[in-house]
Amino acid sequence: MLRFEVLGPLRVLRDGLEVDLGPAQQRSVLALLLARAGEPVTIAEFADLLWGADPPSRAVNVVHRHVGAVRRLLEPALPPRSTGRVVGGAGEYRLTVAADELDLTRFRRLVTRARELAAQGRLADGLALAVDALGLWRGPCAGGPEVLRRDHPSFTAVDRECAEVAREAAEASLYTGTVHPVLPTVLAIADLFPLDEALQAQTLLLLEAGGRRAEAVARYERVRARLADELGTDPDAELRQAYDEVARRGGPVDPAAGPPARARVAEEPAAPLRLAGSLRPAQLPPDLPVFAGRDEQIRHMARMLRSHRTRTAMPLLAIDGLPGSGKTACAVRLAHLLADSCPDGQLYVDLQGFHPSGRALDPLDVLGCLLDLLGVPDRAVPAALDARLRLARSHLAGRRVMIVLDNARDVDQVRHLLPGSADCLVLVTSRRRLDGLATAYGAHLVTLDVLPADEARRFLLARIGAAAPADDEALDEIVERCGRLPLALALVSGRALEHPGRGLADLARELRAAQGTLDGFASHTIQTDLRAVFSWSYRLLGEPAARLFRLLSLRPDREIGLPAVASLAGLPVRRCRELVGELVHTGLLTRAGPGRYRSHDLIHAYAGELCQEHDAEPVRRAARRRLHRHHCRHLGDTVEASATRGR
Fold this sequence. Notes:
This protein is of the alpha/beta class. Helices cover about 50% and strands about 10% of the residues. The protein is globular, with a radius of gyration of 29 Å. It starts with a strand and ends with a helix.
């Protein structure tokens, strides 16, 4: 029987005896598989763990060799070419473990049950299970010296998960007065996160309740100094309030006198604690293990939102851009960077505004889910939309919660989901520019374009690592044929990882052979297939706008003025202005200046495919003829004007 431990130094026990896990790289590979607890790990993530930004030329083969060694280590009797516990495919591996075999899965199961009991009002029982869960924690995830990179995102994510539970348990223990069972583990985890001010605040109160006031004061001073040195900030309101409470008590603590007033739960049954009444959600999707490009934009957005915290209005950021421009990836990266500033939880909802079914999520249903996550019993959830919104805002008041609303269809879908508290933070993504959010709520609007050429090259190299030999000329060709669009670049890099023997020149040749179509960007999954992703916007168009979108592919240039659009479509300028606005609104066309518009190369190719499929040759020929006459008239007017000026 195998038992795995990753909540601390990596250990594997077979029938109670510890297994020698081999050299550092092999141990690191196993640690990452366990930290992901059955979820797939890509070759690029392994390479990032083992070598960082400078993998060797044979990185992919080395990873395969280490994974094979782990497979043989765990199952020495496994026949050759058998799958066993380690399952591989499409450039990734995952390790299958039963729920009771891994300390991390046992930890999560205990925490889930603890939160359920607390939500039922059985706070003491829930706290006891949380203490049992924290008893499995032996130190930082995979924290032994043999593991090469302790700062890998998968390890730090587990550490933050444990810190969240420690904070909940500390808060609940203060209300029940059972401080001592949880105090040692909370102190150890708090030392890992000295800048987590919410966790440090609970730690101060725990120390004071346990009769260790001098230690609490010393801890506050250390945290305050570190915040000033590393972030240039003062402690936030919650940490200052906790320190003030410790300082106010003064004098020695008599343990026989019982817990302080804050720790008595009998008089405070509705205490706003996560283990003491509702779940503290942590729903953010995992951050990308390898992220390149947009760095300065993300830093700018983070600074913008942090500076907004000083105002009385709710921080709200809406990110829009082309289909495939990486809006969700940017929002998730930004959310992880700001997660510490929202210690009461992070909520994530895919609003499915551009879902292939055409059915965006109803705000009424979304609010029902959010209220459930905030601990509201089903019987207490009202039926009306406005009543649900008022209840959600009441539960969010005074709590620092982040809400990520991904793939919004329009402003109406979003406005019914906005909290009323300035303590909350909201991130929205959409293919449409949500100007109404700026007008009504003071939202910051950010539009993502394609990547600059240098960032696009860095994006591709960061994804493929050493899977393909360096070839600057081929790299530049791939970047341009991908139109510097992040989704297209990600598809090509995935292909490089799936077939390590294929060089950049081979990939460039495949894209060149597609001859301007989207054949070079097909994918096995609908979420990443370029045709499918573009089609989600196309399906939202009315028939006149869809026809115009197709006809725009007949022009040789990617940029066009409104009069030329009108000639191409055979429609009045005023009508074309409305239709072009519809295309801009869905992200299929971008403004290039007053009265001028531009389409991305790959979207242009998609429109061309649709035009060949839906518009007969006489229709295409007539449109080209109208556009040609327009250009002739425009050229004639220009020549006549020049001649007039020359007289």
